[in-house]
Amino acid sequence: MTHATKLIVGLGNPGAEYENTRHNAGWWLLEAIMRQYNVRLAPESKFQGLAAKARTADGDIWFLQPMMYMNRSGASINALAQFYKINSHDILVLHDELDIPVGTAKLKLGGSTGGHNGLKDTQAKLGTDQFWRLRIGIDHPRNSSIPLQPVVDYVLKPPKQSERSAIEQAMDKAQHILPDWLDGRFEKAMRVLHQK
């Protein structure tokens, strides 16, 4: 049985100065997932981003990296989703998450944006909060060695090497649950990802 076309989006900011910052964790995970499918992103001007498609036995998967700043990325996501008639329930947005610890990843459908500008814009442009989010924990600056550091400074700086390693371990775990998400086994995907 073939499934509906899926869209997996990595949120981040374009430009070399942002490449290794915490806010680009969604891009890091997207790139890791695409290596599994052996596809490469290419410019797609009508979607204002870089996109790639993997054909699988169960249906097509689109990968998207919006090439505008985080707070405007919803336009890119909506353009591709509208063009290929992809339902919001078949969209998975990969993003950094301040409210969960480094080394943790969580999966959820809908709900609050938690103040994340990329999610806010995606929700506004799609006209719904009913899309999946794979949240990569980067922790909050209040839990760091510089607790008074403004959030914007914190997310736009690279993590320490130990934090980057922990983030990569969480991303590795996230990649393992992707087949379950693609097959609609959402409860199983969440159970496996969320277990300690």
TrEMBL record:
Q: What is its main location?
A: cytoplasm
For this protein, what is the EC number?
A: 3.1.1.29
Q: Record's Gene Ontology CC terms? A: cytoplasm
Catalytic residues per the record?
Answer: H23
Q: Which residues of this protein are annotated with the site description Discriminates between blocked and unblocked aminoacyl-tRNA?
A: N13
Q: Does the keyword Metal-binding apply?
A: no
The annotated site for Stabilizes the basic form of H active site to accept a proton falls at D96
Keywords of this entry: Cytoplasm, Hydrolase, RNA-binding, tRNA-binding
Quickly give the catalysed reaction: an N-acyl-L-alpha-aminoacyl-tRNA + H2O = an N-acyl-L-amino acid + a tRNA + H(+)
In terms of Pfam families, this protein maps to: Pept_tRNA_hydro
Q: Which SUPFAM superfamilies does the record associate with it?
A: Peptidyl-tRNA hydrolase-like
Compartment annotation = Cytoplasm
Q: Which residues bind tRNA?
A: Y18, Y69, N71, N117
List the GO molecular function terms. peptidyl-tRNA hydrolase activity; tRNA binding
Its quaternary organisation is: Monomer.
State the family named in the UniProt similarity comment for this chain: Belongs to the PTH family.
Q: Which PANTHER family match?
A: PEPTIDYL-TRNA HYDROLASE
What HAMAP family does the annotation carry? Pept_tRNA_hydro_bact
Role description: Hydrolyzes ribosome-free peptidyl-tRNAs (with 1 or more amino acids incorporated), which drop off the ribosome during protein synthesis, or as a result of ribosome stalling.
Q: What is this protein called?
A: Peptidyl-tRNA hydrolase
* Taxonomic path: Bacteria, Pseudomonadati, Pseudomonadota, Betaproteobacteria, Burkholderiales
In the UniProt record, the gene name given for this protein reads pth
